Amino acid sequence: MKKINSSLITICLFLISLEAAAQDKRFTHSAENGYMWIDYEKYSIMRDMKYDYLSSMLERQKVINLFQLQDDSLSCREDIKNLLESNEQNQIDLSLMVKQIDKFYSEEKLRIIPIVFAYCYCVKELAGKSKKELTEYLIKILKFSESEQ
Questions:
Q1: Cβ(40)–Cβ(46) under 8 Å?
Q2: What is the DSSP secondary-structure string of the chain?
Q3: Residues with Cβ within 8 Å of residue 92, at least 6 apart in sequence
Q4: Residue from 21, 2, 7, 31 nearest 111 by CA
Q5: Is this structure's pTM higher than 0.90?
Q6: 71-80, 116-125, 132-141 — which is least confidently predicted?
Q7: What is the Cα–Cα distance from 41 to 48, expressed in whole angstroms?
Q8: Which of 8-22, 80-94, 124-138 has the highest mean pLDDT?
Q9: Nearest alpha carbon to residue 102 among 27, 34, 31
């Protein structure tokens, strides 16, 4: 009986250690990232998940409140406001944003970046930020994504 108990405990500890060691690469700092975004493409029934994800994200957080982060330099509140004001003809929709984020994540090294920051990058790009500003922002979000929690 002792042998069964010790074996059972050993197996449980082994399984717990495996679970703790396994890292889900679809999350960065507990937020869905580009790997999650790309995974949506693998399932034909899930093709609309990108639209659903963005729609729910924007609805749930009313766009601006989503970007209340510890480091305000990573947010894009002002860019969203500027983009919405300059978009008088409502040319920006979820379809365009999905295409922009797809383009952003086409480079594999960027997939560790949370979707919210990919969205911000695309907003900044659509708002007309310079290449220099976009590069600086990209470096900031990459550093954040690569940092320890």
A1: yes
A2: -HHHHHHHHHHHHHHHHHHHH---TTEETTEEBHHHHHHHHH-GGGTTHHHHHHHHHHHHHTGGGGG--SSGGG--HHHHHHHHHH-TT----HHHHHHHHHHHTTSGGGTTSBHHHHHHHHHHHHTT--HHHHHHHHHHHHHHHHS--
A3: 83, 126
A4: 31
A5: no
A6: 71-80
A7: 9
A8: 124-138
A9: 34
Specify the pLDDT at position 46: 54
Would you say 149 and 23 are in contact if contact means Cβ atoms under 8 Å apart?
Answer: no
Extract the tokens encoding 86: 């300059």
